[in-house]
């Protein structure tokens, strides 16, 4: 009986740890250069990929976490404050792990499978 409870607890902990959304993060990049790292989003945030154009000819990119209410909107930055637009960015959102790049969701599924197998093996080792 205690073995079953321990196994259920271990699997539950794995699912709880996996629920935090992981996204690629890049504050600002130009053309195809955007140096990314992985970031854990806060609750209520989605991954986003931002694409835009600065001074009407330089492609810019950004990636990261964004509150759901700010998804799929265009933001413009002006300089000086109310003068001409320096750059505009369209932020498109998605809501599964590392979805804001060209990768597929398969690595997230593999991580979940490996975590489940590790939980079962760990539970068996403790009993």
Automatic annotation (TrEMBL):
Residues 1-20 form the signal peptide. GO terms for biological process: sperm-egg recognition. The keyword Cytoplasm does not apply. It is found in: Cell membrane. Residues 19-102 form the UPAR/Ly6 domain. The keyword Secreted does not apply. GO terms for cellular component: plasma membrane; side of membrane. It is a lipid-anchor; GPI-anchor. It comes from the Eukaryota. SUPFAM superfamilies: Snake toxin-like. Keywords: Cell membrane, Disulfide bond, Glycoprotein, GPI-anchor, Lipoprotein, Membrane, Signal. Belongs to the SPACA4/bouncer family. This is UPAR/Ly6 domain-containing protein.
């Amino acid at each position: 009986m205690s073995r079953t409870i321990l196994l259920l607890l271990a699997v539950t902990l794995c699912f709880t740890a996996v629920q935090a959304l992981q996204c690629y993060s890049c504050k600002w990049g130009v053309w195809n250069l955007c140096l990314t790292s992985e970031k854990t989003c806060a609750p209520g945030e989605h991954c986003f990929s931002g694409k835009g154009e600065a001074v009407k000819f330089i492609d810019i990119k950004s990636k990261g976490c964004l509150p759901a209410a700010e998804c799929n909107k265009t933001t413009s930055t002006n300089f000086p404050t109310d003068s001409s637009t320096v750059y505009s960015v369209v932020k498109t959102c998605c809501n599964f792990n590392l979805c804001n790049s060209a990768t597929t969701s398969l690595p997230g599924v593999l991580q979940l499978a490996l975590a489940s197998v590790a939980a079962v093996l760990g539970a068996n080792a403790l009993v």
